[in-house]
Amino acid sequence: MNKETFKRICGNYVTGVTVICSKKNGQDFGFTANSFTSVSLDPLLILFCLHKDAKSNYALSLKNKFIVNILSDKQSKICHIFSDPNLDHNDRFKMIDSTESKNGIKIISESVAWIECDVNEKIDAGDHYIYLGKVIDGKTISKKNPLVYHKSKIKKII
Ligand SMILES: Cc1cc2nc3c(=O)[nH]c(=O)nc-3n(C[C@H](O)[C@H](O)[C@H](O)COP(=O)(O)O)c2cc1C
Asked: What is the pTM of this model?
């Protein structure tokens, strides 16, 4: 199968949209991801996939902390900011409101919920890495609807 057919088939599967934030040597990192999924209840595990060329790989070494911010349908602009390859990571954070977890990782204000994890495992997977995260904290912030991603487009739940 070619890549276009693969992408078209997978595009039929609706996902939410997250921004995954991490930190290394005082520098914040954040990128948009729709590959987030929950994995296990015992222990509590989640995963996401990140392209091997992405800058955030630098901050996601084993045991480092990260936060998955689940975006609301009012945050499509944030989705675009954190997926713009022309914006460096410091500039991305200057354009949004955020607070920090006890561990100093960015929590995006007004998102639906966040979940904080340790990097538990990094698995080689083609042109991506699969990161398994062990959950340590999290909170639902608002009752807003989540932003959704379907057929390569950002959408709202009607
Ligand atoms: C809706 C949406 C979902 C995305 N999901 C992912 C993803 O799960 N994994 C990934 O590697 N890139 C994903 N991207 C692309 C990254 O957000 C983009 O390449 C980003 O600039 C990577 O950050 P960095 O290289 O600056 O660290 C997604 C982009 C969009 C718009």
From this structure: 0.97
Whether residue 154 is contained in a domain is answered as no
| Domain carrying residue 50 | 12-146
Number of structural domains, the chain?
1
- Give the residue among 107, 131, 137 at the shortest CA–CA distance from 51: 131
The conformational region for residue 103 under phi > 0 = left, psi -120 to 50 = alpha, else beta, is alpha
Residue 127 has pLDDT above 90, yes or no: yes
Going by alpha carbons, the residue nearest to atom 18 of ligand 1 is 83
Atom of ligand 1 nearest to the CA of 128: 11
Give residues (CB < 6 A) around ligand 1: 17, 31-35, 48-51, 54-56, 79, 83, 85, 149
List, for residues 135-158, the tens digit of each pLDDT value: 999 999 999 999 999 999 999 987
Nearest CA, atom 7, ligand 1: 33
Alpha carbons 31 and 38: distance in angstroms, whole number: 18
Q: Which atom of ligand 1 is nearest the CA belonging to 17? A: 1
Q: Is 2 part of a structural domain of the chain? A: no
